[in-house]
């Protein structure tokens, strides 16, 4: 027929687009000439059958002769991002539902819908910031651990004893995660803040014992076993008192209710669970780890002394 899509577009625009074709000037005013079809055939889609398209050969071809129309529901405006059509679906959180639960439910619903690979989905706003914060969780924890190790290493002038003190962290982290699981909570950003706080709280047990034991070893010349034994006896009451003070301070957060409780409760549960679990373990594990590193240090010094004596004998020979 010699009809191109551009011809159809031009004809429909002439009919319904109010194309301005000329301007008439008078002494007092000017009038714009607008091209359109007669008003009596502008009422509905059925009137499209009365429109004719001029072909390349000059003939008139009815639009209904090679096209058809179907009623569909379409958006008035189609947003685009990167030349691709996009749409935004907003949601609010129901009472007592965390953002992490909502994100998981949405991901599960997307899997159930069987979204084709050509359709890409992504979270925006607070949900995206939440997912990004979870992805970066190890970074602040690792930074806190490295900072504590450096400070303790400078304080005790040792590479080994900071490791003894940091050995209390795994038990605190396990206790915090178990507490969150028992309370049916997720490891959110607030829970992460609680774990970072535990890094500074639970270490005081080991610091109080190791500091006393090192003083006994370095100043009074006692053996590691006797030094750590006296440290456990004399530091037991201060350790229990400071732990109970921190523990009771976190109980109101863990049991709180009302506005904002979805933020306070994970923090309190993390602190309480981590303190209880670490308190039960570190009083037993810290002395064992201390003695184990002390034994390794003695073997290392003994080997270095043997090597030094061997070198001296070789030089004398």
Give a written overview of the molecule.
- The structure is a single chain.
- The protein is mainly alpha-helical.
- It folds into three domains: 5-65, 2-Layer Sandwich (Multidrug efflux transporter AcrB TolC docking domain, DN and DC subdomains), CATH 3.30.2090.10; 79-130; 138-316, Up-down Bundle (Multidrug efflux transporter AcrB transmembrane fold), CATH 1.20.1640.10.
- It has ten helices and six strands.
- A hairpin with a 4-residue loop joins strand 1 and strand 2.
- Helix 6 runs antiparallel to helix 10.
- The chain is elongated and about 115 Å long.
- The model has no long low-confidence stretch (mean pLDDT 81).
CATH level-four homologous superfamily name of the largest domain: Multidrug efflux transporter AcrB transmembrane domain
Lateral arrangement of strands in the main beta sheet: 1-2
H and E order: HEEEEEEHHHHHHHHH
Helical segment tally? Answer: 10
C-alpha end-to-end distance: 110 Å
Shape: elongated
Strand coverage percent: 5-15%
Q: What is the total tally of β strands? A: 6
CATH second-level architecture of the largest domain? Up-down Bundle
Query: What's the CATH class of the largest domain, please?
Result: Mainly Alpha
Q: In which range does the helix fraction lie?
A: 55-70%
């Amino acid at each position: 027929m010699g009809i191109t899509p551009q011809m159809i577009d031009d004809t429909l625009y002439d009919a319904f687009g109010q194309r301005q074709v000329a301007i008439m000037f008078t002494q007092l005013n000017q009038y714009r000439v607008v091209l359109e079809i007669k008003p009596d055939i502008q009422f509905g889609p059925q009137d499209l059958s009365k429109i004719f398209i001029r072909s390349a050969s000059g003939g008139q071809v009815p639009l209904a002769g090679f096209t058809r129309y179907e009623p569909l529901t379409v958006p008035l405006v189609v947003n685009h991002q990167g030349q691709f059509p996009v749409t935004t679906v907003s949601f609010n959180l129901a009472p007592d539902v965390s953002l992490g639960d909502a994100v998981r439910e949405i991901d599960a619903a997307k899997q159930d819908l069987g979204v084709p690979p050509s359709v890409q989905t992504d979270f925006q706003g607070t949900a995206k910031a939440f997912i990004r914060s979870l992805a970066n969780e190890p970074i602040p924890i690792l930074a806190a651990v490295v900072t504590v190790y450096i400070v303790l290493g400078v304080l005790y002038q040792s590479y080994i004893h900071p490791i003894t003190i940091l050995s209390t962290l795994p038990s605190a982290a396990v206790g915090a995660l178990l507490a969150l699981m028992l309370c049916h909570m997720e490891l959110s950003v607030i829970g992460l803040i609680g774990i970072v706080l535990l890094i500074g709280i639970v270490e005081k047990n080991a610091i109080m014992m190791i500091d006393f034991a090192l003083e006994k070893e370095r100043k009074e010349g006692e053996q590691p076993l006797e030094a750590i034994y006296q440290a456990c006896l004399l530091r037991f009451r201060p350790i229990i008192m400071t732990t109970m003070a921190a523990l009771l301070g976190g109980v109101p957060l863990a049991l709180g209710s009302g506005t904002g409780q979805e933020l306070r409760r994970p923090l309190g549960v993390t602190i309480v669970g981590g303190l209880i679990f670490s308190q039960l373990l570190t009083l037993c594990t810290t002395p064992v780890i201390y003695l184990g590193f002390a034994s390794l240090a003695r073997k290392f010094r003994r080997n270095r002394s043997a090597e030094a004596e061997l070198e001296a004998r070789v030089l004398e020979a």
